[in-house]
Design brief:
The complex is a heterodimer of chains A (434) and B (93). By secondary structure, chain A is α/β, with parallel strands linked by helices. Chain A is built from 15 helices and 17 strands. Chain B has a single domain, classed as 2-Layer Sandwich (Alpha-Beta Plaits), CATH 3.30.70.20. Chain B is 23% helix and 19% strand. In chain B, strand 3 and strand 4 form a beta hairpin. The chains are: A alpha/beta (434), B alpha+beta (93).
Chain lengths: 434, 93
């Protein structure tokens, strides 16, 4: 391939394809490399995508038959101990109609393939089954293209967009961003569990097209800083659990053993009963937050999506940040192509756009949140049990006066956490999300 | 609790390359200088197993998450993506 392109994109995920859509729409000669046999073959996520950012690149995505599992109408938050747990749920009529597809579940094998088709229809070139193994550099060190694992696989481009995901051996090899540290990523494992459509409808109290998400915290992550989730698909559930990779190392926990234990939790087991596991996958989440974001642009290259560690852990938003950053990268690239300055300076419009958008504003807002979770392990160790004890005692009708119950709860609490610790916890929690 | 991760890996679709994309650089280092051997725990596909005198690498079931690469305290694992089109192929994702 000795053809020259304006832009070469590494990775056909939401970030890369969003950029490709926008570039191709504007007549920019764009090539996308995907290491999987088809887009999505290597990609996974929890399971939720967002209509707002999709509409920016494919406004008529509904007419174009986008692959959807269920439209999310209800979000639940669980706080679990070993024996039980709390559940908070919010459902709103708006999510059925006026704000339909605000959030929806899908599978990446189908979605990314469909999304890449849209970019192809707009004129982008897609090359699958091809690993980008290195970056080509000019005399001044600027990036001028990519090397692939195909014979004679060098491809020259004026700008390279690295949208190759959070796990990028290319990053380490080329130094375009530092390798993540174990404490900066969470390792999550996910199972897709098949169930009949009507069984899911019934168990989650929805009609067929509507769905529910459950985000889960507590001691289900065995004292490690982590989360779990259950999302409804049309005829399956996506169920996953993850924790900080450093915590996994230090506590010598095997991810799949934690996953199996989670599936047996008294609040989880009834939801998946009779289900048949279909697929088992693993992936990192960028847990480091704002402070772990690498340099986003260099001479002749940009980073978008997971590759740029853009992830809002508190709101489990990732694919939307990927799409938004891909789009903004495309805008900045077009600006640079117009001016002829493809240096880091010329591409600086990308960082400016991210900073003035919700992408970096949200990540900056929750800058302290990753540290809060890592510093306050009581959230995953002692607090779930104490919270459950409180509810269990107050709800048990056994002739003991409520005042005495309160005292029991308070004493149990005080044995595990001092007043100072509790105040510190509340203060840090507030500061991390304000 | 004993969980057979192989039962989970059987659910997946792979196109296995003849050559491993994972390689332990120095086997003696694992045994002599790495008492914790986190690769034996953190790998979600249980790719790394302790045989009698060395750690074996069952790359065929790799989920391509990268955890072993950054989790190895000695950076003793050479990790590349499988050749284009090879490795795991997600059915659902």
């Amino acid at each position: 391939m000795d053809e020259r392109f304006d832009v070469a994109i590494v990775g056909a995920g939401p970030a890369g394809i969003s950029a490709a859509c926008m570039l191709a729409d504007n007549g920019v000669k764009t090539i996308v490399f995907e290491r999987g046999e088809y887009p999505g073959a290597k990609n996974i996520f929890g399971g939720v995508l967002y209509g707002h950012d999709l509409a920016q690149t494919v406004p008529d995505y509904v007419d174009k038959g986008f692959p959807i599992e269920r439209n999310i109408v209800e979000s639940r938050l669980w706080y679990l101990s070993q024996s039980g747990g709390y559940s908070v749920a919010y459902r709103d009529q708006a999510f059925f109609q006026a704000r339909k597809f605000n959030a929806f579940t899908t599978g990446r094998a189908r979605f990314d393939r469909w999304y890449a088709e849209q970019a192809k229809a707009k004129g982008a070139v897609l090359v699958c089954s091809t690993v980008v193994t290195d970056l080509l550099r000019g005399e001044g060190g600027q990036v001028i293209g990519v090397r692939t694992d195909r014979p004679e696989g060098d491809v020259f481009a004026k700008v390279v967009l690295l949208a190759d995901g959070i796990n990028s051996p290319l990053a380490r090899k080329t130094g375009f961003r530092p390798e993540p540290k174990p404490e900066d990523v969470a390792l999550a494992v996910k199972e897709v569990i098949a169930l009949p459509e009507e069984v899911i409808d019934e168990r989650f109290g929805v009609e067929s097209d509507a769905g529910v998400t459950i985000e889960i915290l507590g001691d289900v992550t065995w004292g490690m800083n982590g989360v779990a989730f259950i999302y409804t698909n049309k005829r399956s559930l996506s169920l996953g659990i993850g924790a900080n990779l450093l915590d996994f190392s230090q506590q010598k926990v095997k991810p799949y053993e934690m996953l199996e234990a989670f599936k047996q939790h008294p609040m989880v087991a009834p939801l998946i009963k009779g289900g048949k596991p279909q697929e088992y996958t693993a992936h990192w989440l960028a847990e480091g937050g704002y402070d772990a974001i690498p340099r986003l642009a260099g001479d002749g290259f940009l980073l978008a999506g997971d590759s740029a560690m853009l992830f809002n852990a508190l709101h489990r938003e990732g694919t939307n940040l990927a799409m938004a950053s891909g789009r903004m990268a495309a805008e900045a690239i077009m600006e640079a192509l117009g001016s002829g300055d493809l240096s880091r300076n010329g591409l600086a419009g990308y960082v400016r756009r991210l900073q003035s958008s919700y992408v970096l504003k949200d990540m900056a807002k929750y800058r302290r949140f990753p540290h809060f979770l890592q510093d306050h392990k009581e959230l995953f160790t002692t607090l779930p049990g104490l919270a459950s004890l409180a509810a269990r005692e107050m709800l048990t009708v056994n002739g003991i006066p409520k005042k005495a119950k309160q005292r029991t709860i308070w004493e149990a609490f005080r044995r595990k956490m001092s007043i100072r610790q509790s105040l510190r916890f509340v203060w840090d929690a507030w500061r991390s999300v304000r | 609790m004993s969980v057979k991760v192989e039962d989970k890996l059987f659910l997946n679709r792979y196109r296995v390359d003849e050559e491993s994309h994972l390689r332990i650089i120095d086997y003696t280092l694992c045994l002599k200088e790495c008492p914790d051997q986190p690769c034996l725990y953190i790998c979600p596909a249980n790719v790394y197993k302790l045989d009698r005198d060395r750690i074996s690498v069952s790359y065929e079931g790799c989920l391509e998450c990268g955890s072993c690469r950054i989790g190895c305290p000695h950076f003793n694992i050479e990790w590349r993506f499988p050749q284009g089109g090879y490795g795991i192929r997600h059915k659902f994702g």
